[in-house]
């Protein structure tokens, strides 16, 4: 196992050093204070420095399944809505009141970000401040107290450091980091919860789709809708995701990779895929549906728009009628989990539209640049990378 890991590391070129930040250490090991009542019992690390550099994982066969890393992070709000006293603890179950706001009224949000390992073993984070800002937007929409941007980013750093041995070798995957914000305080009548819990856990992951790096086959859904005008589709509310399970399961049972949704008003304009944003390419123009309340403002989406503009493409955020899929040169999806995924076909009302995908595709070009920045192989000139 370690032989394969070292061989993989040797195959990657020396990464560029970017940024720096402080970390929390106790006696040379990453640790924390005693756990709160919402945390599992904390057990300090007992490994010697340099021992168990990697967890015992088959890195060559990682999927996008849950493989809990050693530690999670928990922080609770006070009665006046201020978060304080965040701590690391061993990954485990939490105590939660049956009348918690998240269980009774769905008062919850989640985010997704990743930690990347460089050839020389450093850890890089990609724009976690943007995830923090988006969580704050969602918290405002759902009347929730929320950690500050600084608290959010600091907690993500702590989780990445504490779980470093679960971060895959370069080219084998990433450490997926899942921040959660939930109404943990008890409430009976419909109202904001009196207390909130911010929790983060992590898991090593490979490709999101079972097809791996193969292009996707999408199905356009015209019966069910992911979100509606005036709803919470534009924020990462937990309530956005259960409703897509039925149409997504139905599409996958028919051999499709995922579902592409249309707007709920006109039922003819593209919105997004179940868990990622959609882009179409026509000549030198790259377009994506405008995020006007029903579409999530993805961090990867935002980054790809900027990278594409830097590379000379004309980028548009606009209304895109489903009919434009017929004439598109290329279609691709973006998201933290999927990064940039090419689409080889889209089926709408029984008609299949096919797209050519090659190593010279726009999506592959953009993906290569994005991943190069994320993994330290391309110099970060935008201040997107945080090195731990």
From TrEMBL:
Co-factor requirement: pyridoxal 5'-phosphate
Signal peptide (from-to): none
Keyword terms of this UniProt record: Amino-acid biosynthesis, Aminotransferase, Branched-chain amino acid biosynthesis, Pyridoxal phosphate, Transferase
Lineage: Eukaryota, Viridiplantae, Streptophyta, Embryophyta, Tracheophyta
Family: Belongs to the class-IV pyridoxal-phosphate-dependent aminotransferase family.
UniProt protein name: Branched-chain-amino-acid aminotransferase
Organism: Tripterygium wilfordii (Thunder God vine)
Pathway: Amino-acid biosynthesis; L-valine biosynthesis; L-valine from pyruvate: step 4/4; Amino-acid biosynthesis; L-isoleucine biosynthesis; L-isoleucine from 2-oxobutanoate: step 4/4; Amino-acid biosynthesis; L-leucine biosynthesis; L-leucine from 3-methyl-2-oxobutanoate: step 4/4
Record-level GO BP terms: amino acid biosynthetic process; branched-chain amino acid biosynthetic process
